[in-house]
Amino acid sequence: MSEIRGVNLGGWFVLESWIKPALFENIKSKDETGFSLLNPNAEKDLKEHWDTFIVKEDFIYLKSIGINSVRLPIPWWLQGESPYFSCLTYLHRAMQWATEVGLDVLLDLHTAPGCQNGFDNGGIQDVMTWHLDLKNIQITVDKLEYIADTFKDYPSFWGLQVLNEPFLTIDMDIIIDFYLRSYRAIRKHTNKTIVFHDSFRSDHDVWKPFFTNPELKNVMFDLHLYHCFDPKLATCTFDVHIDLILNKRLQIIKDISKFVDVIIGEWSLGIKYDTMKLDPTISHKQYDKMLADLQLYIYSFAKGYYFWNYKIENDRLGWNFKKLIEEGIMPDHYE
Fold first, then answer.
1. How many domains does the chain have?
2. Statement: the pTM of the whole predicted model exceeds 0.90
3. Nearest to 13, CA basis, from 59, 51, 41
4. Measured between alpha carbons, how far is 206 from 204 in angstroms, rounded to an integer?
5. CATH number for position 222
6. Is 314 helix (H, G, I), strand (E, B) or coil?
7. 263: three-class secondary structure by DSSP
8. DSSP letter string over 256-281?
9. Does residue 333 fall inside a structural domain?
10. Helix (H, G, I), strand (E, B), or coil: what is residue 23?
């Protein structure tokens, strides 16, 4: 059974327009950079969002259904570097809530200066220059050290993920060097778990030598496993998804777990039913239930998982953990 049963609190401290579209009305941007630059009331709107999007009752609810950990995406600009605004006070409050309720928190550095992937969740959509400037990488390492030092004394502080989804085209030598530098900077302040994303290359032959380096202690490897981004999965039958889960992804988890603990830092029920070849006698809800149960089964072979996302303020049911429970698709308790 998975030791970590978690959800992501995405869209709270790092904005993504699709998670809360109302925030981006009349703003020609999908990311927090555009929001901060184009919204004359950005700071006021952000503070209201930070106060209301996730509240302590959400932490209490998650604990009550057996969730024991949250992955909390945070920005590199958490101290309020221009043109951004500081969420630091609210982040401290979140850590205190988690402590009071008894939830572990994996702080996840979700953005980096210059953007590490060109996604909206990296802070600047369609920009990816993080790896092209050594100053960007140094700032990221410095921020990780600051985060470790700032939150190390919270009982809820379970671990720190050094960077979310650095893109697969970034040279692996740059990734590995950054990971080692980040590890050493964090270790100056805490021995808590340090998590590294696979950079969308879980099968790369660099990972076993990296994770078997005796210098690395208490580390985990993060895989993000989705069903909606690969074009081949958008037009196939559901059997292809079943085969992917049971015969490919399960084996990947088992193989990697031989040399490092694996977590599934992001997964969802997002799937493109509109273009797939489906059995008309099976409802979308039945397909969703199968997709949920099969993923929960194979993730029990990892050290844990975090569903993306806890809540979505739109009609994308497959991404809305709380709504999926209400609809009877996801389990209402986690052992």
1. 1
2. yes
3. 51
4. 5
5. 3.20.20.80
6. coil
7. strand
8. HTTTSEEEEEEE-----GGGSB--TT
9. no
10. helix
